[in-house]
Amino acid sequence: MAEPIRILVADDHPLFREGVVHSLSAEPDFSVVGQASSGEQALRMTRELLPDVVLLDIGMPGWGGIVAAEKIATACPASRIVMLTVLEDEDKLLASFKAGARAYVLKGVSAHDLAAVIRSVAQGEVYVTPSLAAGILVTLSRNHAPNDPLEGLTERESEILKLVGRGMTNRAIGEQLHLSEKTIKHYVTNILDKLHVRSRVEAAMLSVRGSRGDTDT
What is the dihedral of CA 191, 69, 11, 128, to 10 degrees? Predict the structure, then answer.
């Protein structure tokens, strides 16, 4: 039997949070490993528990969900982030995905549909609530012409790619950046996916080429 999908639920409204936890716990392939009531607590618990999926409310006190998403995506890139919100807002959706979220779901979603989204995100897919999807596609097609693939990397990913380009191992990179070797491995996997390359060598060549382009301009 496959390992259950491990989930952390973060929402500052206890009644709603407990309802989500109750519905998810009823799914045989899910295991809710923790609950958080703030962005700060969500980051701390994600680091401790390393869940497969983190459900984040955007409107939490303190950092809020978007800031928490960015920090979680940086510290624990293997944990997939699902934003669960009442805000049907394209700007918030774009900010969420830029921060590292993989799904944007409205709180009116059924328990069955939420479970389906979590399963798809755990498998590496991306989800946008249908009422916002069409508008976002128009916005992205208007504003994003084909770019250098290196421009799609986050600051941390760019930093790690440069170190890969120097021939450093995951362990050496982790020691320099004060991150675990496992975390660096997940970052490198994400980098290879984003650059559409199959090996560290190909990624390093792209990095060197990009650096040369910077010096030429």
Answer: -60
* Separation CA 4–CA 114 (nearest Å): 16
| The residue to which tokens 């990397």 are assigned | 153
- The reply to whether CATH 3.30.420.40 applies to domain 149-216 is no
* Crossing angle of the two packed helices 65-75 and 90-99, in degrees rounded to 10: 20
| pLDDT at position 216 | 46
Helix 170-177 with 155-165: angle, nearest 10 deg: 130
CA atoms within 13 A on the CB side of 26: 9
Report if pTM > 0.85: no
What distance in Å separates the CA atoms of residue 109 and residue 196, rounded to the nearest whole number? 33
SS3 68: helix
| Residue 93: predicted pLDDT | 85
Q: Could you read off the pLDDT of 32-59 as tens digits, one per residue?
A: 999 999 999 999 999 999 999 999 999 8
pLDDT value at residue 145: 45
Torsional sign, CA 107, 67, 12, 78: positive
3.90.170.10, 3.40.50.2300, 3.40.190.10, 3.30.70.100: CATH of 5-142: 3.40.50.2300
CB 118 within 8 A of CB 82: yes
Q: Is there a common fold for 5-142 and 149-216? A: no
